[in-house]
Amino acid sequence: MRRLVILLVLGLLLGAALVNQMEQGAGYVYISLGDVVIETSVWFAVLAWLLAWGLLVLVLAALRRILGTHRVVSGWLGQRKSRNATALTNRGLINFIEGNWANARKQLLRSARYSEAPLLNHLIAARASFRMGDVEEAKRQLGEAESVEAEAGIAVELTQAELQLSAGNYEQALATLVRARGNAAKHPHVLSLLARAHRQLGDWDALRPLLPELHKYGLLEDAGLRGLEGELWQALLQSVASKPGASVSDLETLWRGIPLAQRDQLSLRVIYLRMLIDLGGHSEAEKQIIAWLNKDWQVELLGFLGRSSPDNPRKLLKKVKKWLEANAQDGPLLLAAARVALYAEEWDAAGQWLEAAYQRGATAEICCELARFCAARGDQPRADQLLAEAAALCVGPLPDVPLPEAKAAQ
Questions:
Q1: Within this chain, do residues 220 and 233 fall inside the same structural domain, yes or no?
Q2: Residues 334, 299: contact at Cβ < 8 Å?
Q3: Structure pTM?
């Protein structure tokens, strides 16, 4: 209230002073612009200037409202196009998932112009084109994807590599992925696709250095790479063993470089023993088998015992007898024990264990081994019967066909 009174008083004083000034003299304004001369009082000039200023303010306000309305309309139209593009993109993605490649590509390309993520439209359209067998259009869409977003090079290269892998163009895919890895060395999906390409090409030596990174990113659990590590080490073991001049030492060096978790796999142990024996490492294979069986009973390993002469047959036989105390009904162990007994020239024990293995479950191998033993003991009829049984186990029972009668000896 106090302020209002002060403002009123000041306004009255200012108004009185202004009226007093106007009564004392109106002043004079003279403006000359070429041939045009304007003469007026100061107060009229001030009034004209205030009117002009007010008019300018009104015009500017009107223009602002008009332009604002235009922007609103433009924004509304743009939002409408964006909403339509989003809806069309969604329909295109649904069609792609459902396998309607032609409709998917058509809808994705129609909505790409106003899409908030045109890169996605072109990448999926490229995949749809590839599924339709239109490789050239797929390449063109990949080029469009790269043009709409300069930083999308890796995404484009990955898509291209996936399409090449799907088409079986493994060497082309590898070239694409090598380039992509140079641009993004630590991109996990690049590593995954690289591993798939090397796997398909059988390039195990190139794949081996990728293992640490594949483990780091947990990529070996992916469906596309499951079992890859086991395949890699099996292939490398076979590769080393098949090289000219390969030695037992070379194979053992590679084996020690294999992760422990893989060395515990039965399938890899079997491959290693087979390669070791092929290279003449019978003694090394025997020691390894004993060490493994003492720690982890795997009957599949017993088949390698007794296939070559042990360094000390009687010592090995003592070990086998201890195993038999706990696994007396184990067919593979009985067969292995019989073979070791034969090397130790324990004929009766060998015969007993062969018969026990046969009774436990006849296989072609057991039948052949027992037939050989019977023939050596002079029991040829039993040997012939066992060989016929072994043949039947291998090829199945023969049909009952008529046969010619044996001619009497002349």
A1: no
A2: no
A3: 0.66
